Amino acid sequence: MNTKVVKVNRIQPNAAALVEAGDIIKSGGLVAFPTETVYGLGGDAFNKESSRKIYEAKGRPSDNPLIVHIANITDIDKVAMDIPKVAYDLAARFWPGPLTMILKKRPELPKETTGGLDTVAIRMPGHEVALDFITAAGGFVAAPSANRSGKPSPTSAEYVVEDMYGFADMIIDGGNCEVGLESTIVDLTCEKPLILRPGFITIEEIGEVVGEVDFDKCIIDSSSDEPPRAPGMKYRHYAPKAEMTLVSGPSDKVVKYINDKTNEGAREGIKTGVIATNETQYSYAAFSVKSLGPRRDGKQVARNLFRILREFDDEGVDVIYAESFEETGIFRATMNRMIKAAGHKEVNL
Ligand code: AMP
Ligand code: MG
Q1: Ligand nearest 232 Cα, by number?
Q2: How far is CA 31 from CA 126, 166, 204, 230, in A?
Q3: CA of 306 relative to ligand 2 center, distance in Å
Q4: Strand 40-44 and strand 141-143: pairing?
Q5: What pLDDT, on a 0 to 100 scale, did the predictor assign at position 229?
Q6: Is 237 a domain residue?
Q7: How confident is the model at residue 63 (pLDDT cuts 50, 70, 90)?
Q8: How far is the CA of 122 from the centre of ligand 1 (A)?
Q9: Ligand 2 midpoint to CA 260 (Å)
Q10: Residues 261, 201 share a domain
Q11: CA nearest ligand 1 atom 21, residue
């Protein structure tokens, strides 16, 4: 398949390209598109063949459901039913934005799109290009992140091209993603709202709208035997090619531990990558040192993580050591991805 790559942004609005992208979706094809969280690989949510193609392109198990992206809040009831009032309250506060809601699905929506489930994940993204594209596509675009399954989600078009060239009919290049981590997922089909995946919108912010809300058990306790309610959470995720270890403890001890490990490795010809912060980056002497940003800047730290993991892949480091963060606010989302990227390999000093 020939993949067409087009730039669409404020300076080059490229309306004709969006019409073409919309037509591709309507005729059963796939288009990768930018959102404020990460890039998505989109297909017509109501076309089961399109959903099958998405799973194939990603190499993703077909029990791992997609998110239906809409461009108007009022379209919720075209894909979901028995919608509780809190869903509209959450939409009013956070949409367009990085929040995905799980609701009961309408029977017209094919089960191929929802990974065989009776529930559907819905989001209205906070990105102009995404909204224009969804509208051009007829209003209902099913999309997971536009990476090959298991790899870090792409936060710039360059990595979408790397993973999806030859699999998608078109890739819309809208520049870098502002948030850089996937949406917060909240399940509204249980008695009490449950956060299935932490994201940019925090549990505290959701609590302000819905009252009581909890985390799904397997987010808090990774050794929990209960299956995760978000099927995607059980799969290997965000993994860089190199083996990664997350190191926590007092900053001076963390720096010393990582430098000791780097030196040990260097004697055996092992190339080490370090995920640092602005405060510590010059204290490391490794093959490659990258900063997530100022330690207290949760937004910047979140935005840079996936890009850095991808860069380490490109540089061919053999092992990665990463500083860790306290799991509060938006840092909880970043830590969730880092723990998964490290395959739960953690050292506490
Ligand atoms: P991605 O955007 O690639 O992270 O994929 C979408 C994520 O949404 C997956 O991890 C799914 O597990 C989750 N998801 C989608 N639909 C549902 C649903 N009906 N119930 C629970 N989780 C869902
Ligand atoms: Mg994904």
Answers
A1: 1
A2: 18, 11, 34, 24
A3: 12
A4: antiparallel
A5: 73
A6: no
A7: confident
A8: 9
A9: 34
A10: no
A11: 230
pTM of the full predicted structure?
0.95
Please give the average per-residue pLDDT across 119-135, as a whole number.
98
% of the chain with per-residue pLDDT over 70: 95
Q: Please work out whether the CB of residue 50 comes within 6 Å of at least one atom of ligand 1.
A: no
For the cut 60, the answer to whether the pLDDT of residue 187 exceeds it is yes
In this structure, are 272 and 198 located in the same domain? no
Nearest CA to ligand 1 atom 15: 65
Q: Which residues, chain by chain, have CB under 5 Å from ion ligand 2?
A: 145
Among the candidates 173, 199, 215, a domain finishes at 215
**Number of domains the chain contains:** 2
- Does residue 102 have its Cβ closer than 6 Å to ligand 1? yes
pLDDT digits (tens, 9 = 90+) for 193-209: 999 999 999 999 999 99
313 in the same domain as 259: yes
Q: The dihedral of CA 233, 239, 244, 249: what is its sign?
A: negative
pLDDT value at residue 62: 76
Q: Residue 325 burial by CB count (10 A; 0-12/13-18/19+): exposed, middle or buried? A: buried
Pocket test for ligand 1, best of 66, 148, 194, 235 (most atoms within 8 A of CB): 66
Nearest ligand, CA 79: 1
Give mean pLDDT, residues 124-140.
98
Q: Which domain, by its residues, includes 331?
A: 243-348
Q: Report pLDDT for 1.
A: 86
